[in-house]
Amino acid sequence: MRKFVIMGVQGSGKGTQSELLCADLDLVHISVGDIFRWNVQNHTKLGAQVRRTMTAGELVGDDMVESVVRERLDRHDWNFGFVIDGFPRNGRQAEFFMESYDIDAVIHLELPDEEVRRRVLSRRLCPNCGMDYNLIADRPEVEGRCDICGHELIRRADDTPEALDARLRDYHEKTRPVLDIFGRKEVIHDIDAHPSADEVQQSIRLTLGLPDYKPASA
Known about the structure:
Elements: E1 2-8, H1 14-23, E2 28-31, H2 32-41, H3 45-55, H4 62-73, E3 81-85, H5 91-100, E4 105-110, H6 113-120, E5 123-125, E6 132-134, H7 161-182, E7 188-192, H8 197-208
Parallel strand pairs: 1-3, 1-4, 2-3, 4-7
Antiparallel strand pairs: 5-6
Helix pairs in contact: 1-8, 2-3, 5-7
Region (LID): 122-159
Pathway: Purine metabolism; AMP biosynthesis via salvage pathway; AMP from ADP: step 1/1
Domain Adenylate kinase active site lid: 123-158
């Protein structure tokens, strides 16, 4: 069984790399951000709380995050292991996670703030069908419209310059120190997140001693 945590600032590619890692290794991708976004899009009580927090550019409270993570992992549908991203984000969450679960490695995607801003502020979302776009590498065929359903694309509530600045501050002040906590017991692997998604994935696999990554187009 393989159990990994993937960390990195917003826009570093955590979700993409998690999905590529899970694709042919039979791992389950657990994205705390996706869980919260699902609740927002489906107008649940939890979603309403999350929406207010995200719009303010703040991070969801520890109690709520820990509850969501515990509930998700307690399903035990990860027979061959999991990759969790978006958690932990601060010292308390890291201590909770280390006390509750054993993991094999922490993958840390490194990306400077200026590149984060370029990537994040280029992201767009279809509020109707949930498709993600990036105006740098994955532009829609018709500008401003979803290729799937034709709906007008929007920025996520947490992708404004103000919200991003707040998240970067939170990351450097609260999340970076998490690496020191994991360093007590776990092996942390720093991965350069600048190259293409396929190249970053291959670097992760080489570092962790996993089977080579074979892109779908290869």
